[in-house]
Amino acid sequence: MSETPTLSTTDEQTSRELDTKHIYQDSGEVAHHFERWARDGVTVLPRYEMPQEALNLYAEDGLNENLWTSKEEYQVPVQAVERIEEAHHPLTRAQELEMIYFSLDTLGMLNEISRTTAAVIAERRLA
Amino acid sequence: MSDLLKKTLTLLTGSPADSKRQLGSLTERQLIELEAEIGGTLFGPIPSGHRREFFCLDDHTWIWHEEWADSRNQRRVTSTRYEIHDNGVLKAQDGKVYKFLEGDELRNLTLAIRLYYEAVSRGIYRRDPMTGQRLSDNTTATI
């Protein structure tokens, strides 16, 4: 049985040392341009000097809302998932009522009990 | 449908139309007994050897009654009365005044009462609890 071939870690090409000398030279040239633009009154803000809040993804009103998504857009898939869940597991009547009664306060529940009791008595008398 | 066929079906299955007349001949107490049977099933399966009833006694009173035999085969009975007052629902258990219901316990009672109404409305009085319309004789009653 043959094994999955792997690349040799001692490959001559991959272990070759990268010549970085020209990169440092380029950096010096860029810095030189910045200095000249500054002398000429041109304001160019290098990225590493940008205000911290401009890159703060967690800021209240920073880039995060523009980069990601609004709350309204976020609700849509959540509601869709809920609808799919409901289709797979339809609510029982008891669960439906539980959700309706969840928002009732004590007085609301007392009124509901009185109304329903009156309805039961009415059914009995109509029989 | 011919008269003969109608009579034959009535003999075999009993006429659903007669149920109205039969209900009318029942006393209030008998109607309550019918309701109590349905009411007892609202809280899930009844354990073997238990007898559970939940019913509306009158305009202001609901009863939850449970009987069972304990491990020594002694008969145990718990009876809870819920009284509807203007300022709340008072719970009295085994004759002792207990407390005014609040929070989840009140919500659970509200839910049980509503389910009771819907179940007896369909199952006994043959009415749609949402509309009050009489259910047709062919409609299957769901509890």
Assembly form of the protein: heterodimer
Shape of chain B: globular
Radius of gyration of chain A equals 35 Å
What's the mean pLDDT score of chain B?
Answer: 83
The percentage helix of chain A is 55-70%
Sheet of most strands of chain A:
none
Shape of chain A: rod-shaped
Indicate the proportion of strand residues of chain B.
Answer: 25-35%
Strand content of chain A: under 5%
Number of helices of chain A: 5
Number of strands of chain A: 0
Average residue-wise pLDDT of chain A: 67
Instruction: Please identify the structural class of chain A as seen in this structure.
Output: mainly alpha
Distance N to C terminus of chain B: 30 Å
Q: What can you tell me about this protein's structure?
A:
The complex is a heterodimer of chains A (127) and B (143). Chain A is mainly α and 127 residues long. Chain A is built from 5 helices and no strands. Chain A has helices spanning 21-39, 63-67, 71-88, 93-101, 106-126. The longest helix of chain A is centred in the C-terminal third of the chain and has 21 residues, at 106-126. The model of chain A is unreliable at 6-11 (pLDDT under 50). Chain B has 143 residues and is α+β, with helices and mostly antiparallel strands. In chain B, strands 1-2-3-4-5 form a 5-stranded antiparallel β-sheet. The A-B interface holds A 93-94, 97-98, 101-102, 104, 106, 109-110, 112-114, 116-121, 123-124, 126-127 and B 23-24, 26, 28, 31-32, 35, 56, 58-60, 62, 84, 88-89, 102, 106-107, 109-111, 113-118, 120-121, 124-125, 127, 129.
